[in-house]
Task: structure prediction
Amino acid sequence: MSRYIATRAIRGANLIVAEAEAMLRKAIEELGADTPVTFPNTAYYLPVIFGFTGREVTKLGDLVPVIEQAKEILHPVPGKELWLPYLGQTLDCGVATLWAEEAIEGIRFARGLEPQEITWDGSYVPSSSFTSPDAEDQVGRHLNGPIDDIQLRSWGIQLVDGRMPGFAAIIGAARSNEAAVQIIRELQQRNILIFLSGNVNGRSIIHQLMEEGVEMGYDTYIVPFGTDTISAIYAAGFATRAALTFGGMKGGQARGMLLYNKFRCFAFAIALGEVDDLKFATAAGVLNYGFPVIADTVIPQILPTGLTMYEHVVSMPFDDIEGKDDAEKARRLVQRAIEVRGVKIKITEVPIPVPYGSAFEGERVRRAEMRVEFGGKYSRCFEYLTTSDFDAVEDGKIEIVGPDFEDVEEAGHMDMGIVVEVAGRKMQDDFEPVLERQIHYFVNGASGIQHIGQRDIAWIRLSKAAAEKGFNLKHFGEILYARFHADFGAIVDKVQVTIYTDPEEMKEWLAKARKAYDYRNRRLADMTDDSVEEFYSCTLCQSFAPNHVCIVSPERLGLCGAYNWLDCKASHQINPTGPNQPIKKGACEDPSYGVFSGVNDFVRQASHQTVERVSMYSIMLDPMTACGCFECIAMIIPEANGVMVVSREDPSMTPTGMTFSTLAGMAGGGLQTPGVMGHGKYYLTSKKFMTSDGGFKRVVWMSSFLKETMAEELKAVAEREGDPDLLDKIADERVSTTVEELLPFLEEKGHPALTLPPMF
Amino acid sequence: MEKTVLDVPKMYADHHVEAVRKALLQLDGVEKVIASSAFKRVVVAHDPERLDAGAIHKALQQAGYAPGEEWELPEIPEGKDDNSAWFQTLQRVTSTDMQDLEMSGDFRKY
Result:
């Protein structure tokens, strides 16, 4: 253990705890001990403190024992004469630092000082896409602050399936703006989530990115926490909540939480610029999680492994890095950081002139930045994937039929059709829609390209920046060719892409595509649980929720919404030993509840004997477990003789007295709780939705987000149920957030649930 | 232009750097401020005719960062390892824990 690091980290810890104590004392004097302390939209209180100690901090007064406990694990700064093995003391002090930092952020929230305001005149591109959107006049005026539970859960599936291999907490400021942008781009291309905080002489990497016009927000995987080191605590809070949300840990299970992070959460910190006492102390704190720290300045190193998988603290002075310019040096710095943490990266080389990676999927191209658009209001764009004979497909052929967009005026539009022809021995017609849906993600991965919609309502925008770098229509083909081979190589042997802009050819292919869409729609409608012999498992999330098993059937898609039965079938073909295994249904023990002997046998074994039975279509009897990535939670409201369905996007209070975040703690982590169920939002439209409990007519309350975004689909369900006005009879958060408000509404509207038999 | 260099021990982290810069940059006559939390030192470039070192000193003091002044640290009991709260909360083990082994097995798997 480096005595230098130990000395500075322990000193930093002592100082920040003293500062937190002084701040707390002053805040209690001025605001009162009962002043609420909350981070927005989280069920985990102050998550680091909760994860370590189990303390549920809700008001300033609750922080007093936290600071006392932090003081108890502080150690004296190492003496000049006596040399000791300092590792334990340093780690303890690191934990005390994290508690103190989180307490300070809690106090700042109580004072209304968080999230921090942006005080910099740069060309900041504001993002209004945070899960809890700002009011119109506040957009882009403040930094993100802590990540809320909603966003954490919506990233869940990406974290578990490897699309998002880890996160990087960047603290400080890069040597130059060029280096800052390059570091970010390198991480984005690897789909690594980026958290920003800290400053050097008042200048933060956040300012640097603002000056360079880099779009920050959840959609681009870049989350600016704040401009000081204290706000880096939100990164530790994110890691802690990952263990609590997906790992089924409870508050206070410190050891399990830390181990969980060491083995499952691939995170690291990069310290840019000078490292002060607090940065050393914070680094000591995150070392407990198994997260290494890489600095671009000269500091002592801690190279042995143990706490972390590889080295603990690595110094890589920026000036000593080989490279012709700052961008190349930055590239090497990121590569080293990834090596040190052992982050597993699955990267597909796509030969296009713009950066490529999942982190660019959420990027938007606004009209002012747009070179050309295909589809949308003024033109048509469609995409169609079809299986052809082996001989008819020339692998790697990319053809443009019609003009490219050079002659289209700036910010203009044109028609385009993307036709992908594939051939493969294992390819089946049923996989066509599965693969076709991937076009959205594949095209969106290119920086400067925005893709919305699918089929014949696709809408693609191309930015001026991408066009200036040489992006043209052929590159759409390059992307699709590379990605289909990389991701679906097991079922696709040959891929050919044709881009149609010629009006006559386009018309002809659009007619063919529409015929195919129609056929697929009818095929999907015919596909029911009764018409298939096998369901599929999805144990993808077992890397996070070890005992959870999803059973995916044609009429019940995965609770994350990302995998339906066909997706699982295709996934099984691609990876026969992977997380999607076919399950023979076996004997049907109860068709109404959806109890199948084969499913029970599989679940028992795959859940490590923690779940004995599963009812596919019931919320009351042996409901399916959930990992934590669910799109919706259904929960019984006994007084109303029905259930409410709350969506992940809805942060408001529900009639159960709990928000989505709090409910999620009951529904997730592989636990089977009768009366509570996580599910995908399209399960609401299924004929098998809670059939044993009365079906869709049991829904008495539903988040308005669902009502609005699924209006057409839900209307069709209401008609199918024989009550076309059913949706109007279902309350939402605008009507009631308590049972007392809910019941009169239901009675007034004559909701059918009130006359159904009791649920239990 | 004159440069005044001051040691500010209380400035041990970057949130102090922000506070110190804010306090100094609003003074008339200050051209540039370089504040380092690693060295706990501030270098102020200023016009001596409009602002003297005393005024800088005073501004820092008012902002709570008087040059030379240290933070008061909490009292830490010495030699308390085996009785500390940390040790009481979490049992320290010296043998391999099966849970660790299982989790590392998963790690290899994933």
User: Anything to note?
Assistant: The two ends of chain B are 61 Å apart (CA to CA). The helical segments of chain B are 14-25, 53-62, 85-89, 98-109. The longest helix of chain B spans residues 14-25.
